[in-house]
Structure formats: C-alpha cells, structure tokens
Write a structure and sequence with these properties.
The chain is α/β, with parallel strands linked by helices and 329 residues long. It has helices at residues 34-45, 75-78, 82-89, 100-112, 125-128, 131-141, 148-153, 156-163, 167-174, 180-190, 201-209, 213-227, 230-242, 246-261, 263-295, 313-319, and strands at residues 54-59, 62-69, 93-96, 195-197, 298-303, 323-326. The chain contains 16 helices and 6 strands.
Length: 329
C-alpha cells in the first residue's frame, strides 16, 4: 500500500544477515485525536469506491472480479476469503501485479547486475546528507543487513522503499512466510488457471530510477521521520485493511506525512513517490485489463490501494462503461 506496495519485489534480496525480531507494532488509530480521526474519515468518505476489497465488474454480460490485496504474510491477512477462492478456481485467467516467475527473474538480474540499485554516477550518500541524517539512516539499515559501505552507493529511491518497511516484515517473508498475493497465485496454478502479470520488474524500477538524484535525496530526507515508526504504521495499515477501510489507509499515510514534514513538502512527496506507485501504474495497467475484462471470467488481484479513488482501477473502468459492484467476502 502507499509505501508498502513495492517491497515484495525486493524482499528476497535483503534476507541475508537479518536479525530483527517479529513485527510488534501498535495500531495508532487508538491514539488519534478527534480532529485527526475526523480528517481521515472525511477524506476516506470522499474517495470513490474507497471501502471494500472485493468487487465485481460487468459489461455486456461479461463479469470478472477485482480483489485488493496487502503484501503481508501473517495468517490473518494472507488467507484468501472463500468467495475469492471460488472465483479463482473457475477463472479463465488470474492477473497479478508481478508474477512469482518475474520476481525470481528480478532477483537473478540484480544479483548479476547490482548497478540496478546502485547510483549509476557513483555519488556518495554521505555527500548529499548531513552527518546526523547519514548516521541515522545507516544505523537503521543494519537491521536489513546493509552495511555503511554499500549504503553509501545505493540509489536513494531504493533506500526509501527499503526503510519504509520494517525489517521484521522482510524477515517474515525470508523465513518462509507467503504473502496473500502469492497464495492466490499458487491456488490458480493448482487449479491449472493461467497467471499473467501486469508489469515487469523493469517497469517498476524505472518509475524511480528516472527521478533526479536530488529528488531521490529529498524523498529520503523527507521520509526520515517516519522510518522509526514503520512497525506502528504497518500495524495501523494492517488493521484498516482487515476492516475494509482502504481509502482510510491512503488518507492516514498522507496525514502522517503532512504532519511530519509540512503540507508543501508532503504534496511534493505525494507527486514524486505515491503517484508513481499508484496512478502511473493504474493508467498503464488499464490498457491491459480492459480488453481482458471485456471477455469476462478474469480475477485481478492487486494491492488494495490501486482500486479506489479518482484514478483507481474501478473508476477508470467506470469511465469506460464498466459497471462495478462491491461483493461480500
């Protein structure tokens, strides 16, 4: 989800040397002030198709379903609901963000070509940050098995994505946890249902690697206040997801960012990072999805924040004459 959508692509690369304990974050919703909670609720209420994870889409009698996932492996969130399982087993095709085979290809590619996550110009992180910022970031990276010498040369966008997710989450996947998306994919394969991906890993990497180095550094600096509370943000996101309050996740992420770095910088961060993770990909995916959904009998399982909102997949489909309906789970 915002900042939690991407790490499934890179988790396997960060496994060696991890020493973090299991995730033990707090649900911060219990600590929200009345005004803070009201702001999140108002924004979520104004979001088209902002509540719910399971949707049916229909045009000219052809129906398919979209299911919003969260890229976590604990049993409470990673167990697909029975209604979804029934649709997967009878589907013509399952479509996911990035297939398991594509993820494996990415891992091989980076191992053979580490420059994908290293700054291509050879710039040093310590030259771009002040001493306090550099010390804080390199201290955090120890839990991810990333030493100072490697951190110095890594692309700042990669560090932002890495540190936005607690090391415990990556450790969970590295020690055998299977995220919800992969469980759905495995079920399709067991049922001999073809599985297709909506993008390649190069598509995702290019969203960020094309940012200027200065913009990447600003993203890293602006994100710094949130890294220490990553486990709490993850647990809050998890609880909102379980209750189907998907738009509230996005509203919460934006409110925290604005609180930490101010409205102007938060708006810049939204444009540089979040719009790339969500809006840009949705507009690209819809070109693949529309003709397939027109045939019907597809299941689309992607991160839940891709569904709702003015530029979400559901609204983009509505704009193309598709009827959407929320389904019970």
């Amino acid at each position: 989800m915002r900042g939690k959508l991407f790490p499934v692509l890179i988790a396997g690369l960060l496994a060696p040397g991890l020493a973090a304990a299991a995730c033990d974050g707090r649900d911060l919703a219990a600590t929200w002030s009345e005004a803070f909670a009201a702001g999140i609720e108002a924004e979520a209420d104004a979001t088209p198709n902002g509540e719910g994870r399971f949707w049916e889409v229909e045009r000219d009698g052809a129906t398919s379903v979209l299911f919003g996932t969260i890229h976590l492996a604990d049993e409470e969130v990673a167990t697909p609901p029975p209604a979804l399982l029934d649709r997967v087993e009878s589907a013509r095709e399952l479509l996911v963000e990035v297939t398991l085979d594509e993820e494996k290809r990415m891992m091989r590619s980076i191992l053979l070509n580490p420059s994908r996550v290293i700054d291509p110009e050879g710039r040093l992180l310590s030259d771009a940050l002040n001493e306090g910022e550099f010390t804080e970031i390199t201290a955090l990276l120890k839990d991810y098995g990333i030493g100072v010498e490697i951190a110095e040369r890594m692309a700042p966008w990669y560090l932002v994505i890495t540190l936005s997710n607690p090391a415990c989450l990556i450790e969970d996947m590295a020690t055998g946890g299977t995220i919800l998306d992969r469980r759905i994919e495995a079920l399709a394969k067991q049922s001999e249902v073809p599985v297709g991906g909506l993008e390649s890993f190069e598509d995702v990497f290019d969203l960020f690697s094309t940012l200027s180095y200065e913009a990447q550094i600003e993203m890293l600096r602006a994100s710094l206040p949130t890294f220490a509370l990553a486990e709490d943000y993850l647990e809050t996101t998890r609880q909102l997801y379980l209750s189907g309050e998907i738009a509230a996740i996005q509203a919460f992420a934006g409110a925290v960012l604005e609180q930490d770095i101010g409205a102007d910088r938060a708006a810049e961060m939204e444009e540089a990072l979040f719009s790339r993770l969500l809006d840009t990909r949705n507009l690209r995916w819809i070109e693949t999805l529309e003709p397939k959904l027109a045939e019907g009998d597809r299941v689309v399982a992607v991160g839940a924040l891709h569904l709702g909102g003015e530029t979400g997949l559901l609204r983009l489909l509505e704009d193309r004459g598709v009827t959407v309906r929320r389904l019970p789970e």
